[in-house]
Write a structure and sequence with these properties.
Beta Polymerase, domain 2; 6 strands
Length: 114
């Protein structure tokens, strides 16, 4: 499965549970650890947990096994490592503080908003 196909599965799962400000960042040229970063927000710790659980469920249905998942129980920032795609789901205040989009974006043309 390509990174684009995997990204679509993740984005569909996030959109289904009303994640907002979903952004996809192509990091192939600046990172050897992954091809794509998906960053999304949830309004509360409960929504962040639900979004992470839904994402995990969606990829497992496609027989994709995450390499790791962190922070889901805390619900402030969930990280799901799918190899070619890394998913960050955060509460807005956490997202604003860490500014991952700014950190990973060398060229703003690499970001797509969903």
């Amino acid at each position: 499965m390509t990174a684009n196909e995997l990204s679509k599965i993740v984005i569909d799962a996030l959109e289904e549970l009303k994640a907002f400000d979903i952004q996809t960042i192509d990091v192939k040229k600046i990172s050897s650890i992954t091809d794509t970063m998906i960053i999304a927000s949830g309004n509360s710790t409960r929504q962040v947990k639900a979004l992470a659980d839904k994402t995990l469920e969606a990829v497992k249905e496609k027989k994709i096994h995450p390499l790791g998942a962190e922070g889901i129980q805390q619900g402030d920032w969930a990280l799901i490592d799918l190899g070619d795609v890394i998913v960050h789901i955060m509460r807005p205040v956490i997202r604003e503080y860490y500014q991952l989009e700014k950190l990973w974006s060398v060229d703003s043309r690499q970001i797509s908003t969903h």
